[in-house]
UniProtKB/TrEMBL annotation:
Keyword Cytoplasm: yes
InterPro entries: Ade_phspho_trans, PRTase-like, PRTase_dom, UPRTase/APRTase
Any single Gene Ontology cellular-component annotation: cytoplasm
Organism: Mycolicibacterium smegmatis (strain MKD8)
Keyword field contains Cytoplasm: yes
Protein name as it appears in the record: Adenine phosphoribosyltransferase
PANTHER family: ADENINE PHOSPHORIBOSYLTRANSFERASE (PTHR32315)
Lineage of source species: Bacteria, Bacillati, Actinomycetota, Actinomycetes, Mycobacteriales
Compartments reported by the entry: Cytoplasm
Quaternary assembly: Homodimer.
Residues in the signal sequence: none
GO molecular function: adenine binding; adenine phosphoribosyltransferase activity; AMP binding
Domain of life: Bacteria
Function text: Catalyzes a salvage reaction resulting in the formation of AMP, that is energically less costly than de novo synthesis.
Length: 180
């Protein structure tokens, strides 16, 4: 169903199609915009196939709000599984399961429905666009685990290595398609 891809070629495609935006969302930040990558048919296919390799063996894909929804759904389609949208707090009707985590200033919450989806005992892989500080990914893994899922790993398109997000999500294994 999936095949192993040339990691150097996948990384090159991501680098080529990522738009860099200086001083966004604040001065000194070099924002990495993956919109051109996702809007490019080949770029989306290459990334989806590589993430599907990472998620192979999962019986549910969890996509993180919001670009993780797009990627997670594409991966789930490749793997013939379902996708679970892990939402930002306040977007789902009750009852919900939630996990709160620290941001640079304040806190945020991730939620999934508490009814209608049984994830207990299921092998879940988390898919997201960027691993930065790791707070969102760590909270998602904690939330899914607290609900009984077996979170087997995570796959991201881009990892900002200097922000040390991998440390924040340890011991969860994360595979990145492109590291800068």
């Amino acid at each position: 169903m999936t095949q192993h891809h040339d990691t150097a070629e996948v990384s090159r495609v991501i680098a080529t199609l990522t738009r860099e935006v200086a001083d966004f969302p604040e001065p000194g930040i070099q924002f990495k915009d993956l919109t051109p990558l996702l809007a490019d048919a080949r770029g989306l296919r290459v990334v989806t196939d590589a993430l599907a390799d990472i998620a192979s063996g999962a019986d549910l894909v969890a996509g993180l709000d919001a670009r993780g929804f797009l990627l997670g759904a594409a991966v789930a389609t490749r793997l013939d599984t379902g996708v679970l949208a892990v939402r930002k707090g306040g977007k789902l009707p009750p009852p919900v399961h939630g996990a709160t985590y620290q941001l640079e200033y304040g806190t945020a919450t991730l939620e999934i429905p508490a009814e209608g989806i049984d994830i207990a005992g299921r092998n879940v892989v988390i898919i997201d666009d960027v691993l930065a500080t790791g707070g969102t990914l760590a909270a998602a893994a904690r939330l899914l685990g607290d609900c009984g899922a077996n979170v087997t790993g995570a796959g991201v398109v881009l990892e900002l290595e200097a922000l040390r997000g991998r440390e924040a999500v340890a011991p969860l294994g994360v595979r990145s398609l492109h590291i800068i």
